[in-house]
Amino acid sequence: MPEATATEVDGVAGRPGGSDAPADDAGRPIEAERAAAPDRAMPARDAPAITGAGVVIRPGVSRRSQRLLEIIPGVVTWALILAPVALSWRFPQVVAWFVLTFDFYWFYKAVMLTGSVVVSFTRIRRITAIDWRERTFALSDPAARRAELDRRIERVVPAIAALHAKGNRAAASGGRAELTRLRDERKDLERLLARRGSGLPDPTRLWHVALIPTYTEPFDKLYETVAALARADWPTERKMVAIITRETDTAGREN
Hints:
The chain has about 260 residues and is mainly alpha-helical. It contains 10 helices and 4 strands, in the order αααββαααααβαβα. It has a two-stranded antiparallel sheet. A two-stranded parallel sheet has the order 3-4. Strand 1 and strand 2 form a beta hairpin. Helix 7 (about 140-165) runs antiparallel to helix 8.
């Protein structure tokens, strides 16, 4: 004879597991109620999920929106390429104006980019030609440095005139560049003294701090950058180099 189950033995309110089984206020067993309504406990995969405030989140909607946004750039690109060909048969004047406007726009962009590159290159050349070590340590005696700049300017002005009179234009151009550099340094020194007065920092206590942002840079390039800073004409004990990279740049961190 097969052994009776707990449900068959215990007939109290049909509760499985005996009279000590948990039940709700109406006397219905909790486990039996959960088993009778599995769909309510575990909603179907394709059913819309309802969150607080009655917001319905349908699976796949965000993915479709993302895919649509990914398609838009390609559609716009091909539309710009094919539209002039298709419209040239019916609206040739509109297409001509569109092409001319497009060409002039990119011509303007090219001219502005070229001008920016030339200006940046000129500024870099002018900055690298300055002896920054001399200018920095001259701050220990600003009055003497200003007097020396005045003497240099007085000597350079007649020298430029003499070179120009002899027809040596290349040397005269170099003299004018030197004169501009001296005048700029005197102007910067006067501005610094007017802003800070005589309380200038001690040049021998200044640090040369270099911040190097990098990401997946090869070791050779990073090495040459740090080596150039090491060869810079500045006291070694007053140099500080910080290499900045992302936490995910494993190769860069190893370098």
